[in-house]
Design a protein that fits this description.
Layout lengths: L3 H6 L5 E3 L8 H9 L3 E5 L5 H14 L5 E5 L5 H10 L4 E5 L4 H10 L2 E6 L2 H9 L4 E5 L12 H11 L4 E4 L5 H9 L4 E3 L1 H5 L8 H9 L5 E4 L7 E4 L2 H9 L3 H14 L4 H9 L3 H23 L22 H22 L2
Parallel strand pairs: 1-2, 1-8, 2-3, 3-4, 4-5, 5-6, 6-7, 7-8
Antiparallel strand pairs: 9-10
The chain binds flavin mononucleotide (FMN).
Length: 345
């Protein structure tokens, strides 16, 4: 397959594993890279030293191009981005922040920057800031998809920028891939699909719950972590959304997180406070969600935990290996293209 994304990233298939906390680990990233795509290490729960070790582990597992993600508003994300630049990783995926300084430094060693956006305004800003590509996340996606569906968002953004676009949100197979390419994307990202594979560390109980769930068994709400977010519809998710965020609980959670990530709490609290009251509330929301997502992912606990998931869970009924997914997606895409060739005459 050949698109600007395969050319820029130096990969065989334009298929990407997006960053998923506790799931996009070195093992899963390397499995996708070795199968012809590429993947981003999720660094949200990692401190700089853990990020460095994880990058080195990926390099032991694959000699193919890989990436890592940094959600710039999160505490510790800038420090993690520094590690990515020091380690000269091939691809840096930036979200929720300006990518200019990262792009400038990455370009010096030949690295590429792909910025995640959910609207036209941010897409054009990322291009101006020096991004090499955009990851455009539609409404169907797990976690922080925007208000507009992939089907409308991709052509709208492709019209407005010159850099290539990777479509993310609702894509779980080769049919979805061909549809995204027809809309003007030059690559696809599959989070929900890749989280349900043999190599994924996602707990079996949670995978099973997702297999049983349908396309409408998700909740999309701002009340879970402060930004519109899609999660698996469970009693605990409904409760979390109804209850909203409590500041005292969030402060306790953020203390636990600072200990887990080995970040001094005072440093975390100060970095939050200097960003202003809106940001304090946002980070308190993230802190409150952090623990719930972690236990659903690692322990399969959906009584307290809440799982991030996309609508495409309703299209997924099996747990194959990453290589099987990649080979199948490519085969399905070629079959869909052939079928279209017989229809569009
Ligand atoms: C289990 C799971 C965990 C995720 N964790 C994160 C995360 O920590 N940070 C983030 O920005 N996006 C996260 N995402 C969203 C993905 O990066 C990606 O945008 C999304 O999965 C794409 O949509 P899809 O699931 O329809 O393929 C997560 C997605 C899933 C399924």
């Amino acid at each position: 397959m050949k698109t600007r994304i395969t050319e820029i990233f130096g990969i065989k298939y334009p298929i990407i594993l997006p960053g998923m906390s506790w799931i996009s680990t070195p093992e899963l990233v390397a499995a996708v890279c070795n199968a012809g795509g590429t993947g981003y290490l999720a660094t949200g729960p990692l401190n700089p030293e853990q990020t460095r070790q994880a990058i080195r582990r990926i390099r032991e597992l694959t000699d193919k191009p890989f990436g890592a993600g940094c959600t710039l508003i999160m505490p510790g994300a800038k420090e993690n981005a520094e590690v990515m630049l020091e380690e000269e990783i091939p691809i840096i995926n930036v979200s929720l922040g300006k990518c200019d300084w990262i792009a400038e430094r990455a370009h010096k060693y030949g690295g590429k920057v792909i910025t995640t956006v959910v609207n036209e305004k941010h897409a054009m800003a990322a291009e101006r800031q020096g991004a090499d590509a955009l990851q455009v996340t539609g409404h169907e996606a797990a976690a922080h998809g925007g208000q507009i569906t992939t089907f409308v968002l991709i052509p709208a953004i492709v019209e407005k920028v010159n850099i290539p676009v990777v479509a993310v949100g609702g894509i779980a197979d080769g049919r979805g891939m061909v549809a995204a390419l027809a809309l003007g994307a030059e690559g696809v990202g599959m989070g929900t699909r890749m989280s349900m594979t043999k190599e994924s560390p996602l707990h079996d109980k949670t995978i099973q719950a997702q297999i049983e769930a349908g396309i409408d068994d998700t909740i999309y709400s701002k009340r879970f972590d402060g930004i519109h977010c899609r999660v698996l519809k469970t009693k605990s998710a409904e409760k979390a959304v109804k209850k909203g965020m409590s500041l005292p609980r969030a402060m306790i959670q953020s203390y636990k997180i600072s200990r887990e990530m080995d970040l001094p709490y005072i440093k975390l609290a100060l970095s939050v406070l200097v960003q202003g009251p809106k940001m304090v509330m946002q980070l308190a929301h993230f802190a409150s969600a952090f623990d719930k997502i972690k236990v659903a992912t690692e322990k399969g606990d959906l009584d307290y935990g809440v799982q991030l998931i996309g609508q495409s869970q309703g299209l997924i009924n099996d747990v194959p290996s990453v290589k099987e997914i990649m080979d199948r997606t490519v085969k399905e895409a070629k079959a869909a293209q052939k079928k279209l060739g017989t229809q569009l005459i």
